[in-house]
Amino acid sequence: MRKFFERHTPPGWPVNKELLSGGVVLVVALLFACTMFGTRYSDSLRNIYYYNAATQTRTLIEGSTMTPFAREVSGIFTMFWMYVFVELAEIWNMYRSFSVGSKSIYVMRRLPDRGELARRCLPMPLIMLAAGLAVCMLFLLAFWLIYKANVPEAALPPDTPVRFFDLFVYNIFA
Amino acid sequence: MIEVRDLSKKYKDKLALQHVDLDIRPGELIGLFGENGAGKTTLIKSILGLIRYQGTVTLDGKPIDRGNIARLSFATGEHSFFPDIDAEAHADFYAEHFGTFNRRRFDGLMDFFELPRHKNIRKFSTGQQNQFEVILALCQGADYIFMDEPFAGNDIFNREDFYKVLLGILEPNETVLLSTHLIEEVSDFIGRAVLIHQGKIVGDVTTEELQERGVGLVDYVKETYNYRADRVSKALSDITGE
């Protein structure tokens, strides 16, 4: 993979540093998502139960309904935009690097292979973006499984399960 | 042959090149001379297609595009190497992208200039960077090699060595167009001098013609530019009052 990235970034580009910085931003975005989901989810779960302190037991409140999953995950991946921004900025940084320290852009523009310049700037940020998106989807799936596993069937809202596409478009990133 | 016809270039309000016509024939060693801002760099960059221009530039009758651009190489004082990789990685990159890359010449020149092969070019001295820049241009395997002030920062011994090596290694069909201020230094090395002044070609002469006329290159340049020999003494006189 490292070899692949070295061939698809500007010559001499610090691939490891790039992977690390992208990874850190993604981890921050995911931590934010986990914190938001965890806080909301535990609050909502608490609200559908009656707690008996004396017996240390909980009972499902009759007629109570759990907050819909779509609302639980609404906006949890907002910080992912920061990751998107960082990766898109990397495309620009990579292109700009051909004019920093020397004008190697002259060589790139003289290459017989027209696609080489784009091949040196686009793949890594786009792959990082796709990987980041895939990780978000995995986390979303994990949140869904957690939600389903802990909410009693009787308390599940009527629109469960929601369509994942709806989540993606309307909720999770904003 | 490279044919430049009616080439003009305007930077905002300034005309950098005005209706330039120039033929560059195979095997020529051309010196391109002119004062700062005369249009030397603009002319070279236009031929290479690195900047937009008006007019036409053809290589053997065809426009210069991705199909034939590899027949042109470029060494510039601005440098066009990749600063964060070493010489070997450059050789690999050039070999991958330019089918005509001359590895043997590359090795020979690297050895001659005693340049380190496994050190990032960023860590070279300015003189070494200049040498490496020119080595890349000479080894790309191009028919037309353009050099724009490639030796700024190199000492005289270094430059002279380079001219000698250059004369020794060039194949008969290889063409060099060298833009420089160092007129005297290259006078024995070039076969043709092109003079540019305020964006126009004001002189174009072969060294043979100059020999026949019994005129040295420096005198020809001064004559063409209407150089006023009394300029310095007049200025000193005005300043000192003597």
What does this structure look like?
The complex is a heterodimer of chains A (174) and B (242). Chain A is mostly helical. Helices cover 63% and strands 5% of the residues of chain A. Chain A has helices spanning 2-7, 15-47, 69-72, 80-97, 105-110, 116-121, 123-150, 164-171, and strands at residues 49-52, 57-60. In chain A, strands 1-2 form a two-stranded antiparallel sheet. The longest helix of chain A has 33 residues, at 15-47. Chain A is rod-shaped and about 75 Å long. The two termini of chain A are 32 Å apart. The relative contact order of chain A is 0.18. The mean pLDDT of chain A is 88. With 242 residues, chain B is an alpha/beta fold. Chain B has one domain (2-240): Rossmann fold (3-Layer(aba) Sandwich). Chain B is 36% helix and 26% strand. Chain B contains nine helices and ten strands. Chain B has a six-stranded mixed sheet with strand order 6-7-8-3-9-10, sandwiched between helices. In chain B, helix 3 runs antiparallel to helix 4. Chain B is globular, with a radius of gyration of 19 Å. The chains are: A mainly alpha (174), B alpha/beta (242). The interface between A and B is medium-sized, with 18 and 26 residues.
